[in-house]
Amino acid sequence: xxxxxxxxxxxxxxxxxxxxxxxxxxxxxxxxxxxxxxxxxxxxxxxxxxxxxxxxxxxxxxxxxxxxxxxxxxxxxxxxxxxxxxxxxxxxxxxxxxxxxxxxxxxxxxxxxxxxxxxxxxxxxxxxxxxxxxxxxxxxxxxxxxxxxxxxxxxxxxxxxxxxxxxxxxxxxxxxxxxxxxxxxxxxxxxxxxxxxxxxxxxxxxxxxxxxxxxxxxxxxxxxxxxxxxxxxxxxxxxxxxxxxxxxxxxxxxxxxxxxxxxxxxxx
Length: 268
Fold this sequence. Notes:
It contains 8 helices and 15 strands. It is of the alpha+beta class and 268 residues long. The protein has a domain at 26-165 and 228-262: CNF1/YfiH-like putative cysteine hydrolases. Strands 5-6-9-8-10-14 form a 6-stranded mixed beta sheet. Strands 3-15-7-4 form a 4-stranded mixed beta sheet. A 3-stranded antiparallel beta sheet has the order 11-13-12.
């Protein structure tokens, strides 16, 4: 299979362009990893549009060997399931999974929403969430953290990677979206708090705003008790990096890229 260099034909870009993140080459191409998760031995990967046409069953082999594959049928919700409930078609409706044993690979997909991978180095349990604005408003990350705690995790020890998503500068939304996000973060109508956190950005159109959905997800994690040092946020924008990522806002086409993480937990 051809080696798919994400920066092919772009000599201005390079593999050291993302501090805290690394491009990992394998038999099928390159995928993105958080250095922080990798330092804890957490097998994971954020894949690009260059892997188009290959689903989790094939992608799982790029990040680990001999693992089972689990994924939900995403519905833009705050629902998080245990991985053993998502073992094959028809995939159960949800937007997050938490591992229930070792050797499980958990997958979510997106094309502007934030893929969020969480891991507890102590127990080896992991979670994967599809966090769009509806997921953040429904506090999906808090649900994933609570389920990890039920598996013995300590939230102060959790390490989290927020993958490529649409940037705040390119994500125009209406007032009802900002109201939903502000409520989920405990700010209600205190939009100045959102502005100070970099979640809410100005927009020249009346009744429109710019939302940094990754910043909102990060603040939700911080409010849940996770330390800043354990949260990695990828700066790549799915809308502007056309060679690397599908984007619903840019193309209006239902195509996605996948993100996955592997449980290192002891088999129960």
